[in-house]
Amino acid sequence: MSSESQPISAERFAFAIQDLPAENLYAKAQELENSIAHLERSNKTLQEYIDSIRSDTSLPESKREEGDKDCSDAIQENQVVIERQKERIELLMREVERRGAGWHEISTNGKVNSSSGDSGTNGRTADTERNAGGRLTDEELRRQMMDRLGNDEDGDDQDGMHL
Predict the structure, then answer these.
(1) What is the model's pLDDT at position 6?
(2) Domain ranges of the chain
(3) Beta-carbon neighbour count of residue 144 at 10 Å?
(4) What's CA 141's distance to the chain center, in Å?
(5) Where is this region: Disordered (predicted)?
């Protein structure tokens, strides 16, 4: 067994999320966004420290040029993780869209931002677009089911499904 754990591949991640409910996909994306924000803040702090070493005239020239190798390495490692996490968010978005729903990004102020453009895209209504996590109202669900079954709004279509 390896002393260092390795992240799962993008392919295995995509396979693993196929059966998750939409709200879990959004929760995972939010978790990844939060992690990215922390890593970016950490990188900024590390870079400021490196810059302070490089500008510290009380240190020998060789030390200023070198900076802090451990901090530089940490920044590079964080960048690799950030890119991997962005890829995972993209896979989560593709999974939601594969299911026929639009991707909604929840901003830090709690508002829903849709990356799919106007609210009429892919036959979605403005009400559907406002519902984060792929949730539909009872009326929206009924309307979509009727459309899929080929029934008209009054239920008079005789070609629909009969039980």
Answers:
(1) 87
(2) 10-99, 115-163
(3) 16
(4) 25
(5) 51-76, 100-163
Q: Which of 97, 83, 70, 8 is nearest to 39 (CA)?
A: 83
Q: Dihedrals φ, ψ of 84, to 5°?
A: -65, -45
Tell which residue, 62, 115, 64, has the closest CA to residue 92: 115
Residues in the chain: 163
What is the Cβ-side half-sphere exposure of residue 33, based on CA atoms within 13 angstroms?
A: 14
Per-residue pLDDT tens for 31-56? 999 999 999 999 999 999 999 988 88
Instruction: Specify the pTM.
Output: 0.61
Alpha carbons 122 and 139: distance in angstroms, whole number: 18
